[in-house]
Structure formats: C-alpha cells, structure tokens
Amino acid sequence: MKNLGTIGFSEEQVELMDVATSFCRDKSPMEKVRALMEDARGYDPDIWQEIADLGWLAIAVPEQHEGVGLSLAEVVPIMEQMGRHLLAGPFMATTLAAQALVAGGSETQKSAWLPQIASGTIATLALTEKEGDWNFNNVTAKAEASGGGYALSGTKQFVTYAEDTKLIIASVMLDSAVRLVLIERSTIADGALRREAIIDETKRSFELTLDGISVDAGAVMDADMSKAALAHVDLAANLLQSAEMCGGTQAVIDYTLDYLRTRKQFGKVIGEYQALKHPITDAYVAYEKARSHMFSAAHSFADQGRGEVATRMAKAAADKAYSHAADRAIQFHGGFGFTHDCDAQLYRRNAIWNASQFGDAAWQRMKLADLLF
Amino acid sequence: MAIAGVAKPTEAELKEYSAEAQAWFKENTVRDPGFMLPLTFMEVSTDQQFDFLREWQCKVYEAGYLGASWPKKYGGGGLHPDYQRAATRAMKDHDAPIMINAIGIGWAGPLLLDIGSEEQKQKYIKGMLNAEDIWCQGFSEPEHGSDLGNAQLKAVRDGDEYVLNGSKIWTSLGDRAKYMILLARTSNNEGDSKYAGLSFFLNPMNVPGIETRPIKKLTGEYGFVQCFFTDARIPAEGLMGGEGDGWKIAMKTLEYERGAKVNLAGGYFLKELDVMGIVDVARRSLRGGRPVLDDPVMRDQLVEYMIDIQAQNLNNYRRRMPPLVQDRPMGLPLMSKLARTEMIRELTEFSLQFQGAKAGYYVGDNNAVDDGYWHRAYLNSFSATIGGGTSQVQKNIVAEHVLGLPKGR
What is the domain range of residue A68? Predict the structure, then answer.
C-alpha cells in the first residue's frame, strides 16, 4: 500500500511535550475546568496570555512573520496535553486561522496578521454552514462586489470563540469559486453573533450572520490560494483534533482506572472484575494505537500524499478510541456516571464535539478509501 | 552484539556477502513444491512437508546462511552477526520457506550457547543447525494451558536418572523430534512458590515410556501432539542449571526467542500473514456483480483494518522511541501480542466475507479462492490468540502490569 505515514519525532517536539505536560496539568485542574464551564467567556484570559508568552501561538508561524518557524508537528504535543486537561481557550481556533493565512494569504495579509497572531491575538475560522457539510467546498454564503470592496451575506456556524477574536476568516462564494475572506471583528455588529448551545460545555461557539458586513478588496484571498488553504486547514484541524482527542482518551481512561481501583461492590474492588477489566484494557489498547497514529500524522504531515493518509487515519483512530473509552467510562461509573458531576460526560461530550467538526471516523475512512484503493 | 574475536565486516565485505546470499536464495528458493508449504513450524502436517522443510534447512545451513554467526567449533560459521542478518534478509527478500527446527535453533541452541556445558554444545548444536536433530518444547500441560508456572509433570531423581510422569500438550513436531526442552516439577514443597519447584531438562524423546498422540487441529491438519510420560527415565545430565531453576531458565528461552539477548542462528520460523494481500482479494472478488472494493460497506470495513494494521506497524517503531512512550513504557510491549493476534484473527475472518458463495470452499478444492489460504489462515489464527497465553490472559497482564488494576478474577 502506498503513502502510509512513518513515525519519528523532533527534539523540539519532545521539549514542548514536557513543558505542555506540566503547564496544562497545573493551569487546568478539574475545578478550574468546571468553573470556566459556567463562565461566559469560557476561558481564563490570564492563562491565554501565558500561552502567548510561552510562544505557543508562534510555533508554526514562519520566521519572516515573527513566528518560530517550526511546524504543526511541534504543536501536536501541546494540543494533546490541552485535550488531556480540557484546558479551555481559543488555541486551536487561532492556530487554524494562522494556518489558513500561512497557506493562502497574500504577503500583505500575512504581514498584517501573522505577527499579531503569533503574539496572542485571537483569530478563528468560519467554514461551516447550516447543512453541516464536512466538504468545505460546498458554500452558500456570498461575497458580491460593492463599492471598492465586497458585501457579504449568508450564515456561518460553529465559529469558535468569535466573540473574543480580532479576526474571522470565513468561506464565501465569489464568481462561483470558494474564497476565504478576512473579516475584522470590529466590523461585526453585536447582533450578528449568537452564542450556540454546543455539546462540549468547555468550549464556546457562535453563529455568525454575514448580512450587512462588508470588507475591502484586499480582504479576499485569491481563488486558487483559498482552495489550497481550505485543504490545508481541513487536514491541520484533523491533525490537531487527533491530538486533543488522544489527550482526552488518556485522561478518561486514567479517570476510570482510578474509580476501578477504589470503588468497592459485592465486597471487591470493582477493578478485579474482568467484565470491567477487559473492556478498559481494550480501550487502552485502542488509545495506544491512536497515539501511534497521532505521532505518525505529526511526523508525516508535511509529506505530500503521506500526510493526508496519516492524518485521516489519526483522526479516525482517535475518534474510535475516544468515543469508545468515554462511553464506557460513563457506564463503568454506574449511577455516578449518570450525573453531571462525573467527569466522564465531559470527555464523552468533548469526543462528540471533535467528531462533529472536520469529519468523524466514518468520514475519514471514506476519504481514506479513495486515497488507498 | 560484539563477539570476542569476530570482526565487524566493512561495508564492502558485507555488500559482497549480501550479494552472494541474494543470488543463492534467488537460485535455490522453491516457491511452489506442488503442495502447500506451512507458514509456521507449528503447521507441519505431512511427511512431505516435513521432509521438504528439513532438507531445505540443511541446504541453507550447508550453504552457510544459517548459524553463520555461531561459533565455528560447534558447527556455526564463526562470522559477525551482521553477516547472518544479511543472509536472513536475503531469505525474506526471496520469500524463502521457513526454518523448521525452531525450538532447536531459536530456543535450545541459544540457551546451550549461553549456559550449556562444553560437552552439551559439542553434542547438540550442529544437529540443530542442519536439522538432523529436530527439537520440540514441552511447557504446556493439558490441565494448565495458560498457567505455565503451574506445570505438574513430575521428575523424580533416581541415581543418575530422572523418572518422568505426566503429560505435555501442544507440542509442535513432538512426534518427529529427537529432543525436547522440558519444564517439569521436581518439588512441590508446601510454602514454596509454585515456580520454585520447577526444573528445566534437555529430554531425549526416544526412550521407553514416552508416547505421542497427534492432535488433529480445527483445520483438519496435524502439527501438534500430546506427549505422555509414564515412568520414562532420562539421564540426569539433561538437567539445566539446578533443581528449581526451571522457571528462570524457561523465561530466558523466551528472551532468546524475542532476540533480546544473544545473536540468533538466523532465519525465521513463521511467515507473516500477507495482510495487504487482503486488498487484492477484495479487488478480485465480486459482490452483486461489482468488485468488493466498490461496495461502500466493505470498503469502510477494509479501511478500518488498514488503519489497525498500520497502527500495529507504528506501535512496533514507537515502542523503541522512549520519548514517545514516557507515560507507560511497558504498555506497547505487553499489549503487542494481544493486539496483533486479535487483529489477524479478525482480518482473516473478514476476508471470508469477500468471497461470496466461494467462502464455502475449503483447502483441497480447486475452486477455493487462493487454494483456501484465507480459510486456513483464519482457523490457524486461533493458535496465536490462544497459544502463548490466551488473549484473555493477555488482557489480565496488561490490566495488572500496565494499568495497575488489582489481581483477582
């Protein structure tokens, strides 16, 4: 079979893994996660600032735009630890918006935005519409020439952290081609954003009504570049999600193991029962497989052909492992598992959220079939 | 690993040797002898297969491509292990048949080279390499399949002999072997751990009181026997180490088998299942008049397996990358048998679904897809999900040693 990913790691990746492991553990204990779920903003701006100060938003931004000039492979271990500790914030959104600019932006657009993003300015993507289609080439929102610029119309959904961003990159149709357009948050009227009720209470997401928003001519990306950027962002998102999901899988397995080791029923620690012991082992085996795929995707991401196969395999494996592990976690906690207080539901909801964005396991497998056979 | 007095070859020397080995295997490898060749040493069923594989191993040895790095004075080639590695690679490259004397050259031989007496090395090593003396392994017992430490076959010292009573099972080549490596109980003192009473023997098979009975496998073929020991008397010099060292030594042989400690004789005893061959079967098979590969459901399933196969391959690389296994370093090694064997069982079972009505054929019918390769592979796959500790025991091992769950059933 052709185009299979390989596995390896960089020194920077390992260093970042170490730093991110302790940072996310310290900054995002479960009490904090739960407190932020009740908070309107949904994340702690001081921690966001710390993340910016650590330079994590600059990692995959090229050096000429004041980034570090590494790759998404080095962002993966950070995302994994954020997923493990459900660390809330617009890190993925901002990283993906930066990647859209890197892959499709003009020099002017890149110089205007990448240095800002690298130092902590929040940005996000607006790609999804009401059909919920994972094929991001199916777009109905529009840009029409108006004055010297463009008038936008249509509705975008799942625009994460839109409220706090400075930049939203949306997909629209212009002259029957999909284009990415840069919208400054300051040009968006208050009523145009509606907070969505989403499955994952640790995240924030908004519906964005484009009607009434106009942008100037320089805000639109070239058609070919838009296409390339969309393809790149699709894969980048799946790569980072596979990392977030692997982290979550590890956490939900550990959380369940703690319970299995301490909870007693019928005079025994329940972890002695093979009816619980074997399925949690199955979940763990699936997790390790998913994690190998994650490292392979990170390592192979930049390789033409290989990168896509490895990334889609990673997302498919992570979705399968996470969904199953978190589902069983609820069940294995018994009555407590049915309560909002039990953390198992946080992970289950996080898994559903990640599966719902940029394609679930079955979608990835469908794409893979075309790539492999 | 470096061996005293054996020089590491230069790149040029190795290249030349490698080219010779490649040429030799190209010329001498028989792909289709006119009957089905076993994929593993556990599947040798007929005299025809046995004779062929024994001759093949002898031929490879005589050409210098087996035991190339074992000491010359015992029959080896006396070369650096890099040479043997090159020869084994040539075997693989030409998809050459397996080496039949697996227990001899893979288990007993390395053990003797490691802790055997000079006399034992002189006596046994060469016959292992040229397949003159076939070896088998007597660890499992009928009442203690997965619980190896609980072996009950009794060995009682009587002068310069031991008297054996009991039974061993799942002995590959047991009816054809000249020697067996045997785990037997020399004491069951109360208070000792069950492992403390075990001893390890080199056991000659051709003595009165040892009888074998072939076990017909679920495939309809043979390959394993049950061995019955009834007052069988064997020379006491066959005891390896001291009485009570059996468990330790048995564990050592497992390490050799994994290639961890010593340089191996070379060759391989199992052929990997051609997992990618399944895509080809799917391409060739029709379902409702269309290739299976065009059926969305089958396609999806097949991709799931491809993802799983790739995960196994990646796991094998990742386990040797310490920074990528920091959290649970023993996880990947301890789950590897479980994950791999279960995957192969599921995959081969799945391959039957491609075949439509033809899945009803079996080995021996000309209409069978790939001569029944997939049916046989599926049924034989259970040997790996059961043998060497069942998958269920493997799950306990992972749960207890990696995940820290309590023992208890």
Answer: 11-121
Q: Are residues A103 and A231 in the same domain?
A: no
* A132 shares its domain with A262: no
Q: Which of B293, B310, B408 sits opposite A4 (nearest CB)?
A: B310
Closest CB to B406: pick one of A261, A296, A317: A261
Measured between beta carbons, the chain B residues lying within 8 angstroms of A288 are: 315, 331-332, 335
pLDDT tens per residue across all 409 residues of chain B = 445 557 889 999 999 999 999 999 999 999 889 888 888 898 898 999 999 999 999 999 999 999 999 999 999 999 999 999 999 999 999 999 999 999 999 999 999 999 999 999 999 999 999 999 999 999 999 887 667 788 899 999 999 999 999 999 999 999 999 999 999 999 876 566 778 899 999 999 999 999 999 999 999 988 899 999 999 999 999 999 999 999 999 988 877 766 555 567 888 888 877 777 888 889 888 888 899 999 999 999 999 999 999 999 999 999 999 999 999 999 999 999 999 999 999 999 999 998 999 999 999 999 999 989 999 999 999 988 998 789 999 999 999 999 999 997 5
The model carries a pTM of 0.90
Task: Tell me if A284 and B335 make a contact (CB, 8 A cut-off).
Answer: yes
Give one DSSP letter per residue of B326-352, joined into a string.
-S-TTHHHHHHHHHHHHHHHHHHHHHH
- A206/A284 same-domain check: no
* DSSP states along B143-210: TBSS-GGG---EEEEETTEEEEEEEEEEEETTTT-SEEEEEEES---TTS-GGGGEEEEEEESSSTTE
ipTM of the complex: 0.94
Kindly report the nearest CA distance between residue A279 and chain B, in angstroms: 9
Residue of A nearest to B316 (CA): A292
Instruction: Identify whether residues A70 and A36 lie together within a single domain.
Output: yes
The answer to whether B332 faces chain A, any CB pair under 8 Å, is yes
Catalytic residues of B: 257
